[in-house]
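User: quick one, sequence for these tokens?
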């Protein structure tokens, strides 16, 4: 279940850097710039490997506890309420929409996409709504299958834990206009592997009900 999400996020990150290859920096210049001159490259490489290891082990658990309150609201309360009134598909749409719009204050501060994307701030909001709709389908599918809000919280925590991993590989000269597309998993390119998973779930659900 949720433990495969970091891999999909890394695939989305790779897709972003494949399209915007000029933004990729294997020397980790951005990380070195943040760390300062007192940290050498081998130490930063080890830190990067440890970060990668954490994405598949303890980081989703830690972030899952932080995401639990949000999940109790979205998937624990709002989605079941909407599903009862309007059915699953409409509940997915409305939950994804409200969840995306809920991010407006932090999007206006540059969260996830920055402040220099094409069409800011409308483009950022639309991309976030799309990502929230995709994640709503994934999280809801696992909620329906497991009947456990903890599984969904871990999935949410897994996404949050891996969300900034791609920034490690951004060049210090990366074009901030490109951040609408990634390397974050809520970017228009970064979200594609997650969207494929969501579509797979929709297909399986329709086949099971046919």
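Assistant:
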């Amino acid at each position: 279940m949720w433990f495969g999400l970091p891999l999909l996020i890394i695939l989305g990150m790779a897709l972003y850097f494949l399209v915007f290859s000029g933004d990729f920096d294997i020397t980790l210049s951005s990380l070195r710039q943040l760390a300062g001159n007192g940290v050498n490259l081998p130490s930063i490489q080890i830190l990067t490997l440890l970060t990668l290891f954490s994405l598949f082990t303890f980081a989703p658990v830690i972030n899952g506890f932080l995401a639990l309150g949000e999940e109790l609201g979205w998937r624990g309360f709002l989605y079941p309420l909407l599903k009862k009134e309007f059915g699953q598909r409409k509940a997915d749409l409305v939950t994804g929409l409200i969840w995306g719009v809920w991010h407006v204050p932090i999007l206006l501060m540059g969260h996830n996409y920055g402040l220099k994307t094409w069409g800011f701030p409308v483009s950022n909001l639309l991309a976030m709504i799309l990502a929230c709709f995709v994640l709503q389908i994934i999280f809801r599918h696992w909620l329906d299958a497991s009947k456990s809000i903890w599984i969904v919280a871990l999935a949410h925590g897994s996404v949050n834990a891996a969300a900034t991993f791609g920034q490690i590989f951004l060049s210090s000269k990366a074009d901030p206009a490109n951040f609408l597309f990634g390397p974050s998993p809520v970017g228009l390119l970064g979200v594609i592997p997650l969207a494929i998973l969501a579509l797979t779930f929709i297909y399986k659900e329709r086949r099971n009900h046919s």
